[in-house]
Amino acid sequence: MSHAFYVNLSYVFAGLITAIMIGWILLDGRARRQEMAELEAAGIRRRSASPAKDAEA
Amino acid sequence: MMALFLRDLKLSVRAGGGALIGVLFFTTVVAVIPFGVGPDLNLLSRIGPAIVWIGALLASLLGLDRLFQAEREDGSLDILLMQETPLVLTVLVKCLAHWTATGLPLVLASPMLGLFMNMNEVAIGAVMLTLLVGSPAITFIGAAGAAVAVTLPRGGLLVSILILPLTVPVLIFGVSAAYAAVEDPAPFFPPFAILCAITLFFAVIGPAAAAIALKNSSE
Amino acid sequence: MSEPIPAIKKFSDLANPTVFLGLTARIVPYLAVLTALLFVWGLYLSFTTEGDYQQGETVRIMYVHVPAAWLSMMCYSIMAASALGTLVWRHPLADVSAKAAAPLGAGFTLLALITGSLWGKPMWGTWWVWDARLTSVFVLFLMYLGLMALQRAMDDPSRSARVSAVLILIGFVNIPIIKFSVEWWNTLHQPASIMRMGGSAIDPEFLRPLLVMAAAFTLLFFTLHFLAIRNEIWRRRVSAQRRLAARMANREG
């Protein structure tokens, strides 16, 4: 097999692994943000999220 | 400290013959190898030291997860943590007791397995000596792993996975010292001295790390 | 996420997760763009430069292999520094950083292993050589996987962080020993017939794309690391709020 095959294959693997890592992190982040939004919608929020309102209450 | 040593020793001897099971496992692993590589005595005598070492390594990992788990279950771990003696010392003594109960029998059983492997007297002696010096290192580094996994319900397998990569140096120098004793050109002493150094190094690092991990996992 | 970002007055303010989130939200886009630009430049360079007269085209594998190997080590160093931060200063973000770095380190180590063996096949004629460097990188990969297993095996994040920090540090102390012993073992078992890379005498022709690619990969790592830390912070907040919500529901019910 020609050397170019190995070169291309290694770049393909490099692209694949970085794509998997980037994709996983982005999807994970999206899922977490979704969960945060759901909790927010359910009326549960962090105490520090709106300190002004807490102080009034 | 002596009392703790004797207590641990008694417990591990009494608890279903932990030492016996270790030796049995060791024997079985070594006995299975010829079925895999064939009964060629020349080949067996050549790879013998390595096989015996690997068997001993696996067998000494076997009982490690029990090192602190039994104490944790019956609550005596908290007492050990609250004692005035430094925890590092307690862990060191426990390691020594564990080694005496499980590591030493392996060392004593190795000559018999060496005979199975068609090794000559010098090789058997060398393997026994290197195991005697090297196996405490496995116990010390394993203590750190056992302390890390003490809170896990099924930590036994995880301990082995975490510890095996760390024991690579011990295995390399143990086996190369054993080979050096048999094959002429290679000197025996340098790898043996490095093996001693590794054991002493782990004798410091292992218990210290185990003590930190135990303190942190108990809070 | 429209939380007000508290001003950073002291270095220790970085420990505040909210501050960190705000900071990374501002930095990460620039980092990502810079990474992409560097990658374009680096890939362009690495495919246009001349091949080595000895290794031919395969020298191009070096431009991904060496940065990945470098990152696999840098990532472990970062994890060790985070572990120290967890154990000594109880820094709240350190354990998050260590946990976020482990999968990235495993990924780059895997990449280094794959490209290494793809380089080895045409050069040495085999996929795998029990060479000192390859073997120690393989041990490093196993350690990454073990650490990931440990970090995910425990429920309580703070306890698992402290316990795995201990293990990270043991591994960090051990890596030089493993490297040294594998080298010893290697010289014992096989004569040094394996082709070594040209040492420091790399032609500038190869050095330039290598450096650009190394910079690109390093920036990629930091971008991903920041994003992963952010995800981990959110994950912990969500689980903490769920627990809080469950407790409140219990009290009311």
Describe the fold and architecture.
The complex is a heterotrimer of chains A (57), B (219) and C (253). Chain A has 57 residues and is mainly α. Chain A has a domain at 27-57. Chain A has 2 helices and no strands. In chain A, 12% of the residues are buried. Chain B is mostly helical. Chain C has 253 residues and is mainly alpha-helical. Chain C has a domain at 60-191 and 205-239. The radius of gyration of chain C is 22 Å and the shape is globular. Residues 190-200 of chain C have low confidence and may be disordered. Chains in contact: A-C, B-C. Chains A and C meet through helix 1 of A and helix 2, helix 3 and helix 6 of C.
Task: Show the helix and strand layout.
The complex is a heterotrimer of chains A (57), B (219) and C (253).
Chain A: H1 3-41, H2 51-56
Chain B: H1 2-14, H2 18-37, H3 41-62, H4 66-74, H5 76-82, H6 87-116, H7 121-148, H8 155-163, H9 168-182, H10 189-218
Chain C: H1 17-48, H2 62-89, H3 94-124, H4 132-153, H5 157-189, H6 204-252
Helix pairs in contact in C: 1-6, 2-3, 2-5, 2-6, 3-4, 3-5, 3-6, 4-5
Summarize the structure.
The complex is a heterotrimer of chains A (57), B (219) and C (253). Chain B has helices spanning 2-14, 18-37, 41-62, 66-74, 76-82, 87-116, 121-148, 155-163, 168-182, 189-218. Chain B has 219 residues and is an all-alpha fold.
In terms of per-residue confidence, which ranges of chain C show pLDDT below 50 for 5 or more consecutive residues? 190-200
Structural class of chain B: mainly alpha
Give the helices and strands of chain B as they follow along the chain: HHHHHHHHHH
Helix content of chain C: over 70%
Overall residue-averaged pLDDT value of chain B: 80
Strand tally of chain C = 0
Give me some keywords for this one.
heterotrimer; B: 219 residues; mainly alpha; 84% helix; 0% strand; elongated; C: 253 residues; 6 helices
